[in-house]
Design a protein that fits this description.
Six copies of one chain form a homohexamer. Chain A has a domain of 116 residues: Ribokinase (UDP-N-acetylmuramoyl-L-alanine:D-glutamate ligase), CATH 3.40.1190.20. Helix content of chain A is 38%, strand content 23%. The first copy, chain A, is built from twelve helices and 14 strands. In chain A, the strands form two sheets. In chain A, strands 1, 4, 5, 8, 9, 10, 11, 12, 13 and 14 form a ten-stranded mixed β-sheet that branches. In chain A, strands 3-2-6-7 form a four-stranded mixed β-sheet. In chain A, helix 2 links the parallel strand 4 and strand 5. The longest helix of chain A is centred in the middle third of the chain and has 16 residues. Chains E and F meet through helix 2 of E and helix 2 of F. Strand 3 of chain A pairs antiparallel with strand 3 of chain E.
């Protein structure tokens, strides 16, 4: 049964040099609007849920363009406030083969979202109207005001019996020097409030400071994730292991830990067209599976295939419908559909 | 020696989202005009033959644009009539890797071609001016009016001593439910009139209802094609086996059956840029070989390489010249030509 | 106070050759989705109202793209059904100076909207949830099924105390030979149900068959509109007189007849960038004024300026906000806003 | 009754910076293929005639592209030879308002056309298959080889009873210093062979060295054209007077002198989108009128309107059909055609 | 004789929606890099001078792209420092006719330029290597750090015998509430240091608080400018009066006050393609005239025509060479240059 | 320590059909300006050196555009002369998979560079201001005038104690029939003047006519390069072996011979986006290593990686900075950099 799911997060303007040119070679940019919350909610709306974004956009042409774009993606704008002056932006230069993609950020700390006043959002009202809410570690890195909004909203949703989802998504460049130390208490606050968490062993090791004697990633994962789940009382922990191969392909394998059991998706290897945002597609699959009551095997496989397909479309935001994902879970790559 | 060859078939407008965007992501379309007959005739004109299309286009801007585009492709427009109101169209969203390409058709049953009145074409006059004529199973799926045109023209060409070519090209979505049953009598009519047929074992099994105990595709082919040739008195039957690989490559192998002997092309594996229409390039190679009197080995190899090269250019219509194909038959992939 | 307003109408795909090329010169098309109802509702959403479209889109990629585009325009999709196979389309070649723009339609009679079954829409439910509904003469020209939907819905809205708006919008090419005779009874049915009507003296003369001895357009208008209002019990009749000038400018003057009085807007002369859909912007202004209870002078001036601004943006759909229109009503053309 | 008309002339590649950028600002070019002969013949094919171009293109990708483009324009390629290595090119930067358009040529003297060997064209065969042939003063400026081809072909056509058309089209930059002196004998050779000549009083004054005491352009025209017609035994002389106005409009008036009488077209003022090649549209109208036996008034009006419409489409080559021109001769500028 | 001229100012990234779309309609942006100093220096380099920009760009891809673009414009980058993280940006939506252009700024206060540390620039070294330096009121509006740089550098240039140029360029939105009061002392500091000032009567009235009883702009100008020149010991004051007309044209007239005399340029009316940055072209003309020792009449006419031509090219930065301007000063609008 | 390095060579305009279209399919071209000297010098400027190009461009829009583009690439234009009329051009159609890329040249023999008069360049002045100069075999193939400039300048630099670099770069199509015989004396002249030479065993065998009994490329290399170094007194000889693989990848291995020792880079295999100009990136790496005094192993590895990265960006000209290359030498292919 479809649910009502919200995400709290910033909307970013993505400005991408077309093709494989550098910013110093090109003279046009393609622009879209995205963000972890946008991506997750848009994907969930494609699976049949109602999805809200809780955010704040400037009252100018950029804000109008972002709001229109989000509606196009299927995001309900009831809880998108307008105010402030700026929108966070990032520039993307696509890599090719031996040359990596490169992201350059504008100053997002002054954005409408990151400067929302304390009284901006009505936590109780929102919490009363949704079944679940999604947060992400990128937002957690911004500033105290935003962190207060996050924790207050998570608290309110928990109190109303809703599900709290948290994607760790630690970005070193956002936390700066001694980032793990700064981040740990905030991550712990969120983990205590969360029912579903997206993370892997690296978060446990570096952000939470857990220790293991294991050396292989998978062994560390199996060692540490149960500890995290127990310590913070988390019902579901899911995540991926990714490998970047030399021939423009990536390899991805999802895991899901629930009721003291691990399940794993198939290991998927596929050509990559646009890598950004694919992690959010995986998260959307986990949320969908949990909300719909799929069994863990189905959920992690759905999530992994959702993640794979998100690498095959342009833009940060997943575009696959539930039917597209189910078809890709069962069929091999086909000839033209006509 | 160059021949005069005609094709009878519909002209479609192809509207393609550029790059790898979906229709719901993009805002521009690239358009071209194509069709099985267009593709075959254009290719044959590049090999030095004179090529006519026998078709009907609307008397409006779309018809003007299609007519101009066909001339550009090297198609002689003497037998392209103007009348009716509509042009068939299809929208193409390019797949990438694990995501298949997707074709969406507009309503083509009301097209100028598919509503041509009974007296539209002067079969005898056309037949008297050409050496060979090409038909295709897509046209056969349209309606009774078009089928009457096809059979009457094939009959007329046969009576004038010309060669009749028929490409089975069965499309399930066009015939609807119980399609094979509906299609069989019409296919049999065309096969009886045809001298050269493009098909493989699937057509024999499903459309013609032949049976075999063999399981492997190739064994079925060798079992069934001679039966078809004998039953319908067909001089040449040719076709391909195609495999879609995981890394954006396809594998193709052509066969040709003539005088009770099979010959096969090399098995070719190659990167795919635009798959649509590549089957028509193979057909054009078979026709060219037969018209020029090449030996079967040369013919099937020429056709397979023509098919391979058609996957490397944009659009449905093959662009390789005879010289390009001959070079690709003998040389390995090279560095820049300068 | 913002209202809830719906429109019943077809969604068309607009395929425009960029710049001033002809279809036979270009190779790309810009596509958008529009329609009289879409345009009116999108404009009303920009003035702060909630706007629904009541329509039907195919269950394929084109339908997905149209639905996403409509959401982007601010149209609420609650009453947009999915079913059927085709979308109506039109191709636009922009004119320049002495060369007129040219529109070429695809076959729209088989569209999802025009083949909606009799039980498709729940008139009573819709009527119970809206304050007003908009219809247009283009829809009336389609077929009996669509006309039944129109009249049943108008009846239901009237019964629920809602406002019925009808834009005459007679298109000769859609009604064919003896069109006025065929159209008259259907127009009369709608006029009897309508509270607000968009028309001018030409509709009275040609479609309704009224007569006048006056020769000048304005005299005819003043002679005939009161007769129409009285005969069909219409509260508000509004419309425009347009002149196409030689230097790429148009001249527009709006009128509004209510309570036995005519009011007129200023006569506006302005450069034209994209003329299509500008009439819908005028209609949206009349509806807004009436819904908000503006006085007739304000309403007709707002509508005329809304119409003028709609000529300055690309696409069929007006993009001006209420604030943009109010600013343009009071200020002269300015330098860059920064 | 449609005629068979050929033109002898060079094909140029036009490389245009899109919009109003300079070459040092942009990074893309739009390319087309044109030339005086191409433009005239393409226009005549749109009026229903069969049109050949007699020319020579290189045997490489550029030649292939040019040949395909010419077919698209409706030019029959029977007499287009392939050989040599280069194609003439020019770069176009569009002017705007107070800034003039700017053309930069590549080296065209080594082009395939301008280096065609003496035995390249079979004059007698060509002459025996056409009703008329068109030449232009630009070709006359190239080199002795090309001039020999021109004169020999004109001679052959005259001997076969065909009509010889010559457009003076004097370009100072092509003839260099003391250009008029160098050009005069060649112009006189062509004028003696010509039946229809496109020129105005400037050609008479500067190239032919005639004298008049009149000061106004029109008086000079009326004074000098009859002298030219008599001296060189020319049946029809036609041409235009053009004024470039300040607001991106031009004013054009055509004249035609025949049987000792002058007729003039209306003076037409219109917005200009692409000025290049518009003179060829006027010439095509004069040729069409003469070939079809229209009366001089009809001919000069048809030619002037053809010229006007050629300013409203992109590219050097006129795109208007006979129907488009006839409609523009009778109707005022209209609203959208749909 | 060519001089060595520097400008001190910020580099902005301009992100423009192509054509006439709004940000909420489009999906691509054209980007360039500009700024008052960039525009003036680039223009001066086209007149033969050596031009430096004194500025600071971030050490990332955006900074690399900006630096490359400035070199392309002819700006010498010797004094462009690299450091800090952000680049100022603005988004431009082109107006059309009755709809004004709209500029939306990103947060520029954190830009590399506006956060340059106190010791960033070596004033004495720069001053010793240049003949003149240009400053602008936009920079003056930023913050105290930037204002200190401006005044220190102006002081240093003055001490080394160089010419100080100041363009008042008051932007209300940058100074905020009570802006004139905040701005006045800083403007006075700069005027006292300046030799050449670009301003008009509005700056005298509003920023400097002078008073006049005159009502017409021109009378106010003649009344106030001599007072300003005397009070602040300014050798040359120049500026423009601009009118925005209804038909996409502007009217411009330049003035220059020197040695107690006013001179005026012709009043120029012209079509406008891209208005932004045209004021900088006028300034560049004044500087060029003064540096080259032209008489005031020549200078103001050169500057006004430079300003006019800057409206006819895309981008903020003037592209006309000295020869282009001289030609436009003497000739009327012409046909194609070839 | 950064050096001052010049290259002597022609600037070519590259006109590339976007994507994978043929010239006969497309209608737009992307243009850039390049040349062996441009590429080498631009790369060296990215490594921190000052780089001059010694060349000649036409005094028209094409020359202006080329000059601006070269500045953007980081090339100092002090020694770029303006004069003559034409610019060399080439058209590029990108190959895909089994279809090779194709280059078509315009007539470059009449270019400004190739027609520079004997007194054009001041060899002594240039030689006195630079540390090294780069020449290439393409220039050597042009004509006697250009060859005289090359040898005179090389002589002058040698006399001033500078380093002479020569890249053999033999192009068969430029030398025509019996090309090796014609080329040999000129190559020998340059080799005698050169300190650093880019070549491999093919140049030794075919151009210089050396002989070996070895069969494998590598054995031939090891046999012949020392002979060349000794015979012509060359300090450093470097070059590459390249293999074109079937899956759109190339394999590259660099060598460097100095002080009687060979060193080799890793064998690198990588996906290819734009192959043209990658050889110049390798050369730039060798020059950088030698100028900076790196050890031969570092130099050849730096050069090979510079070559590899040049295949991953569009255009002929390498875009990697020294930091980019050093990073790619040490790290494996990574995920997005953000």
């Amino acid at each position: 049964m479809p649910k009502i799911i919200a995400a709290f997060g910033e909307v970013m303007m993505r400005l991408q040099v077309p093709g494989y040119d550098l910013l110093s070679q090109g003279n046009t940019l393609n622009y879209t609007f995205s963000g972890t919350g946008v991506n997750v909610i848009s994907a969930l709306s494609r699976y049949g849920h109602t999805g809200y974004l809780i955010s704040r956009l400037p009252s100018n042409s950029l804000g109008d363009a972002a709001a229109a774009y989000l509606r196009k993606l299927g995001v309900d704008s009831t809880f998108i406030h307008r105010g402030g002056n700026y929108l966070g932006m990032y520039f993307l230069e696509n890599g090719f083969g031996a040359r990596s993609s490169r992201v350059t950020y504008s100053n997002r700390l002054e954005s409408s979202f990151n400067t929302a006043p304390e009284s901006e959002y009505d936590y109780a009202n929102i919490a009363s109207r949704i079944d679940a809410v999604h947060f992400c570690g990128i937002t957690l890195a911004m500033n105290d005001g935003v962190r207060r909004h996050m924790k207050s909203l998570a608290q309110a949703v928990k109190e109303h019996g809703g599900t709290v989802i948290f994607d760790c998504n630690y970005r070193p460049s956002l936390w700066g020097e001694e980032g793990y130390t700064k981040a740990k208490p905030h991550y712990e606050d969120m983990l205590k409030l969360a029912d579903i968490v997206i993370m892997n062993e690296k978060d446990a090791l570096f952000t939470l400071g857990l220790e293991t004697e294991k050396i292989e990633r998978e062994d560390q994962l199996i060692d540490l994730i149960p500890v995290v789940a127990k310590r913070y009382h988390i019902q579901v922990i899911a995540g991926t292991h990714r490998a970047v191969n030399h021939n423009n392909t990536h390899t991805l394998r999802g895991f899901l830990f629930k009721n003291d059991h691990f399940v794993f998706s198939d290991e998927l290897t596929f050509s990559v067209y646009d890598r950004i945002g694919a992690g959010d597609a995986f998260a959307s699959g986990i949320i969908h599976g949990e909300m719909e009551g799929l069994n863990p095997n189905q959920t992690v496989q759905f999530a992994a295939v959702a993640g794979m397909l998100a690498h095959t479309v342009s833009g940060d935001t997943p575009m696959a419908s539930e039917a597209d994902i189910l078809r890709a879970m069962t069929e091999s790559v086909g000839d033209v559909e006509r």
